[in-house]
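User: My collaborator sent over this chain with a note saying "see what the structure looks like." That's all I know about it. Can you take a look?
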Amino acid sequence: MSDGDRSGRLAGVVITGAGGGIGRALALAYADPGRPIALLGRRRAALQESARMLTERGAVAAIYEVDVRQARDLDAVAQDFHQRFGPVGVLIANAGVSHGTLTAALEDRAVFQEIVDINLLGVMYTCSAFYGVLARPSRVAGIASVAGFRGLPGAAAYSASKAAVIAYLESLRLEWRSAGVRVCTICPGYIATPMTAHNPYPMPWLMEVDVAARRMRRAIDAGRPWLVLPRPMAALGYLLRRLPIPIYDRVFQGLPPKPRRSQGGER
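Assistant: Without extra context I'll predict from the sequence alone. Here is the result:
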């Protein structure tokens, strides 16, 4: 990654969904003294708490209360951060939501659209908005999920959105490589965050969020194109993607569904 300009100033880091969970942990993982870090999210109080934690470590936090579904607002954030702190060395499109959805439930139509808009379009809008202010070289990462490897019952919107993010980031990796931008697709398994706190099913290899964030930073900075974590989940993910349909259906058909919004299944 580009770690600074000719003046010695550290390159800026931009993180969406930075008010908690993986986003806050990533911000803390990048909180080098003097490094400017843009914290993007919809909840100002949560962003302020993230900023306080960064400031304690000597980083320079800039709060932007923004919804990643609003492309023009992201454009304005990109220009403002660039004017204040210079080119962006690391861009992490992390913002995402997770709810259970049922296609047969008409009331879930709006929830399905919200998940796709935030998890997929939000990633694209973020990357599009910041492309013009990226340093050369630079790093871009998107947070997908192992849930994008195969469809899960009761989580069609989440699985579909993350599968689309995986494909989108692969396309982006090829498009931007010649411009000096390395794109990393990150697929976490179960990470201990508010998003997983209400899952009613076993979560093997549950990983502490700060440990996950440190591993993510190492992969992003090294320019790796792909990361699945924790390590046992990478092996399981490889198996899941190749499991024959009859076996996959038999194993996963009875899986407890992800909680729907009415059941508290919300990030």
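A starting point for your reply to your collaborator: Residues 96 and 119 are 5 Å apart (CA to CA).
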